[in-house]
Amino acid sequence: MSVSWNLWHGCHKISEGCRHCYVYRQDSRYDKDSSVVTRTAAFDLPLRRKRNGDFRVPSGEMVYTCFTSDFFLEEADEWRAEAWAIIRERCDLSFLIPTKRIDRFRVSLPSDWGDGYDHVAIACTVENQDRANYRLPLFRSLPIRHKLLFCAPLLGALDLSGYLDDDIEEVSVGGESGMDARVCDYDWVLDIRRQCIAADIPFSFHQTGARLRKGGKVYRIRREFQHSQARRAGINYKIDR
Hints:
Organism: Barnesiella intestinihominis YIT 11860
Helix content: 10-25%
Strand order of the largest sheet: 1-4-5-6-7-8-10
Largest sheet: 7 strands, parallel
InterPro entries: DUF5131
Radius of gyration: 18 Å
Structural class: alpha/beta
Protein name: Phage protein Gp37/Gp68
Strand content: 15-25%
């Protein structure tokens, strides 16, 4: 089971992967300015209890954290220490935190972090070789117990061979969604898979994106089928660790 926990909403674009951000796209339907960062009413969600005293988010859940912003966003610096305290208190949950701002990871880091909380996974997101070359050396150097790599939205071929080691627990790849989505080439996906197999690192293809090039032809894939079509490709690579 899983739950989404968006502590704050809004962000500002910092790289090519942000150009057609799904948060901006969704907010535009309601004339909402996605560049304005606000703390949400769900900030304390993991600590909320039912009338009988049980937590509303039960033990064992996977918590997808801050998917409508970035956990390490500058505008959220004043709230992050409190967010970490909530995460620390709910050590019976598993928190997944993706970020394009791995260079800000140490800002407001808890004093007891050590080499990482065992119930927290950080996913560094890269979309092209330029961002991989900038973010991944930083990512590899940081004290994080569970490291994931998200190649999404994948905008070009990636050479990850210098960055894949035993510290990376999984690489997940996805294309770009939306009417203006840029093409994701299936050959890029397969090449990342090849690199993962060579390094014996789990790989998953989680989303085709709206425009997938395969066999020289570009296919337009509706939003509701982008995850299921990726699964149907049957190219995920799992290992027992």
